[in-house]
Amino acid sequence: MLSYPATIPLSNRTLNHLAERIRGHRQQRKSRWRRLTPGRQALLALAHLRNGDTYTRLAAGFEIGVATAWRYVQEAIALLSAAAEDLDTAMRRIRQLAYTILDGTLIPIDRVADQKPYYSGKHKRHGVNVQVIADAAGRLVRASAALPG
């Protein structure tokens, strides 16, 4: 388990994987000094992704600004999505499996300026819909882009 002011049910391997991606990205861009180390930035992003902590809460916990917290999380998400398989590769992998699990979930969001497309009548709240394909053991094979409502 990793911890910051709350517990995150993820392994150290997950944290180290993301931290290495961030470290490599910073070296590639020849990035100057940053407020958080790659490990702390990875922890910040994982706390947001796994626990859904708000940027305000993360900023207070990691002693950074809200805009910096947002920028660090967005950078980590971009690095993770760049490493993901494309749809064709995922479909070839799926064909080799005995069976797969397809499911969707609504991820709650704050209201946006153009609210109507993001409102889910079924769940009676605003959110984005993500479709997920998993193997028989429940390991993620592919996740779709976030779609309105």
Overall description:
The protein is globular. Helices cover 45% and strands 20% of the residues. It is α+β, with helices and mostly antiparallel strands and 149 residues long. The model has no long low-confidence stretch (mean pLDDT 79). The chain contains five helices and seven strands. The chain has two domains: 82 residues; 62 residues, no CATH class.
Q: Would you kindly provide a brief summary of this structure?
A:
The chain is an alpha+beta fold and 149 residues long. The chain has helices spanning 12-29, 38-51, 55-62, 66-83, 87-95; strands at 2-3, 7-8, 101-108, 119-120, 125-134, 140-143, 147-148.
DSSP helical segment count: 5
Question: Could you name the ranges where pLDDT drops below 50 across 5 or more consecutive residues?
Answer: none
Main β-sheet: number of strands, strand sense, barrel status? 5 strands, antiparallel
Number of DSSP E strands:
7
Shape: globular
Share of helix, binned? 40-55%
Structural class, from helix and strand content? alpha+beta
Written as H for each helix and E for each strand, in order along the chain, the element string is EEHHHHHEEEEE
Total count of domains: 2
Tell me the strand percentage band: 15-25%
| C-alpha termini separation | 32 Å
